[in-house]
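for the recovery benchmark. C-alpha cells below, seq after
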C-alpha cells in the first residue's frame, strides 16, 4: 500500500456544504446541513432506507442541485469522485473479466469515443493490486464470491483516481471476514489522503470506522453532523431517534440497539 498522507494533505477541504437543503423539484426532504469533507477523512452517512441519505450524497456528487444553500469547492473545482454501488445492484450486470470491469473506471478520464491505452490497463491492474485482487484479473466477474466482487468494484472506483470515494452499503451481504477486510481497505485509502464516504442503513456497520457521522434519522428530524465520539452515545442517539438507544462497546466494537429491541 502507498504511504500515508501528510498532515498538510489531510487539512485540504474538498467540499463544503453550507446550509444545504436537498430534495427534488424545489421541495426539500431534509433540514439544512453544514458539512465539510477533507482529504483523508472518513465519513459515515447513516439512516434508515428512505430517510434521504442517498439524496444527500447525490447532491454532494453533483447529480442533484441543492434546493437551498450552497455546495462549495475550496479548490475551485469539483473533486474527482469514485463511486462504488451496492454490490447486489451490480452482480448480474457485467459479463466481463475483473480487469475489464476495473478498466471501466478509466473511461471518465479517457474521454468519450477514445480507446484505452496500455497506461490505462496498467492503472487498472494497479487498482486491483491496491485491493489485493490482482489474481482475479482474468476471472469472470460473475463467477467471483461476494467479497471478491466488492473488491473489484472498489478497484474500478480507484482506477478513476478519486479524491473522494463513495461506498454505498459496503458491507451489505458480506460475511464477517469480508466485512472486516473491506474496512481495512477503507483505512488504507484514508491513509493515502483519499476521503471516504460510507453510506449505510446500519449505524453499527460503519460507526467504528469513521471519524465523522452524518445521522439522517428521517424527514421530520434534524440531521446530526459531528465527530463520532460526540454522536455515538446512548444519550445523543436516543435524542436523535426519539427512541431509547443503547450503545455498548464489546471487544472493541460498538454494539448499538434499541432498548428492549434487537442489536444492530
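predicted aa per position
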Amino acid at each position: 500500500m502507498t504511504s500515508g498522507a501528510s498532515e498538510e494533505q489531510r487539512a485540504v477541504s474538498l467540499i463544503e456544504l453550507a446550509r444545504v437543503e436537498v430534495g427534488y423539484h424545489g421541495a426539500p426532504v431534509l433540514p439544512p446541513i453544514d458539512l465539510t469533507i477533507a482529504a483523508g477523512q472518513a465519513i459515515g452517512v447513516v439512516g434508515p432506507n428512505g430517510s434521504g441519505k442517498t439524496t444527500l450524497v447525490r447532491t454532494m456528487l453533483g447529480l442533484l442541485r441543492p434546493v437551498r444553500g450552497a455546495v462549495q469547492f475550496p479548490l475551485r473545482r469539483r473533486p474527482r469522485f469514485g463511486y462504488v454501488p451496492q454490490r447486489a445492484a451490480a452482480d448480474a450486470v457485467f459479463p466481463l473479466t475483473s480487469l475489464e470491469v476495473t478498466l471501466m473506471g478509466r473511461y471518465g478520464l479517457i474521454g468519450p469515443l477514445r480507446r484505452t491505452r496500455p497506461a490505462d490497463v496498467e492503472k487498472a491492474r494497479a487498482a486491483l493490486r491496491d485491493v489485493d485482487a490482482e489474481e482475479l484479473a482474468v476471472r469472470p466477474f460473475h463467477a467471483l464470491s461476494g467479497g471478491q466482487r466488492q473488491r473489484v468494484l472498489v478497484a474500478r472506483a480507484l482506477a478513476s483516481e478519486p479524491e473522494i470515494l463513495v461506498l454505498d452499503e459496503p458491507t451489505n451481504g458480506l460475511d464477517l471476514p469480508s466485512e472486516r477486510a473491506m474496512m481495512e481497505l477503507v483505512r488504507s485509502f484514508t491513509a493515502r489522503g483519499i476521503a471516504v464516504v460510507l453510506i449505510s442503513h446500519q449505524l453499527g456497520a460503519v460507526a467504528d470506522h469513521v471519524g465523522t457521522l452524518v445521522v439522517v434519522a428521517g424527514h421530520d428530524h434534524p440531521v446530526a453532523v459531528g465527530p463520532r465520539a460526540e454522536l455515538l452515545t446512548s444519550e445523543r442517539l436516543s435524542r436523535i431517534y426519539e427512541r431509547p438507544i443503547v450503545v455498548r462497546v464489546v471487544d472493541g466494537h460498538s454494539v448499538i440497539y434499541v432498548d428492549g429491541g434487537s442489536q444492530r
